[in-house]
Design goal:
The structure holds 2 protein chains of 2 kinds.
Chain A lengths: L12 H14 L5 H21 L8 H19 L4 H22 L3 H44 L4 E4 L2 E7 L4 H18 L3 E8 L5 H16 L3 E5 L3 H10 L7 E2 L3 H11 L11
Parallel strand pairs in A: 2-3, 3-4, 4-5
Antiparallel strand pairs in A: 1-2
Helix pairs in contact in A: 1-2, 1-4, 2-3, 3-5, 4-5, 6-7
Chain B lengths: L8 E10 L5 H14 L4 H20 L4 E9 L4 E9 L7 H4 L13 H8 L2 E6 L5 E8 L3
Antiparallel strand pairs in B: 1-2, 2-3, 3-5, 4-5
Classes of the chains: A alpha/beta, B alpha+beta.
Chain lengths: 278, 143
Amino acid sequence: MQNNLLSGLKEHENKLLTIWSQLLIDGGSDDGAVEEEESKEFASLFLKAAAAAEGKIQDSQEFEKVEDLIVGIASSRGKRGFSPRENAQYLITFKEAASKILSELIKDPEQLFDANLQLNAALDNMTILTFEAFMRGREDIISRQVDEISEISTPVITVWEGVVALPIIGTLDSSRTQIVMENLLQQIVDTGSSIAILDISGVPAVDSLVAQHLIKTVSATRLMGAECIISGIRPEIAQTVVHLGIDLTGIITKASLASALKTAFDMLQLSVVKRKIV
Amino acid sequence: MKSRIMTTISNSKEEALIVKEQDVVPLRNRVKEYGVKIGMSILNQTKLITATSELVRNLLKYGGGGKVIIESVSNGRDNGVRVTFIDNGPGIANVELAMKDGYSTGKSLGLGLPGTKRLVNEFDIKTELGNGTTVTITKWKNG
């Protein structure tokens, strides 16, 4: 087993910190003060792990704590607006500082080389960890946004007492249809509506899969005792649907949302009249 | 009498890899851009992107993903867009049956292939069991 050559660093913790923060400032890191607390914590934990390790520092129990800490630091720095490059720079300058002290401590070139190798192996791995932590932070944001988008992109609007409308914008794929259907059926229950209008003005193309999804949504609405009207069928969509051979004859379809609403009023035996001005 | 062979010149061309459902919308938008570039009418554009949409869904569902080539083509009199869908899936056992309205091995409406053929001007399907399927469609600007 290789000897642990990094244990000597522990005694020079303060010196290391001074060199490190100097390097960070020289490197253009402007808020050294904010980092000081976490830098101290990181340095002391790292050096403790280095002192405690018998062989390779990466294999020691203490090192796991160091890794957890650096992941925490990386994600908090990420939130404060540091780029992954700056995060990596943060660790690279630490390595530089430690390397400087090692060259003062160890005089034998061969040993010094080995010590630097150990230092590199330990810190390079941590640099990768900071990148991963940064990516994970980003991915969390993306997946949260995906959820938010799918939620806000299927609004169910009560347009009249007993009439709900759902404008669909964008592509209807399987997962989206599922959300649309769930929202619509739930709203029918919540509002006690008897008519639902599905407006597809914002759907760029209706292929057989989208049509199948629409037919299913209409059937489900009918099972709940409500009637479903599909509106917003543009001329080119109508021709395409006919050429494709999709049969929508059993479904009430309208060209515009206004005419769908008119049909809904007719069904509810309501009429809109112009007020006579006396 | 020998049938007249129309020579088609390909002007610009690009390839796209399709592996997941999220690739469908960007591809459709690219195809639409090709249509817009040659001044295709809204109706023909819609027909073309609907056909693309059908075939790319087939490519994903039955072919397990594959490659799509979009080309801007010209035959001297008219300009058009040609889209080729290539997968290395299991192939289609009975093409004649697959081209019939209402036939589906999946649980779909069974209109994808026959419907697509009606939407475009030229439709060609090559398939071999175990060797994948290649579908080529062409929509002319004034077709």
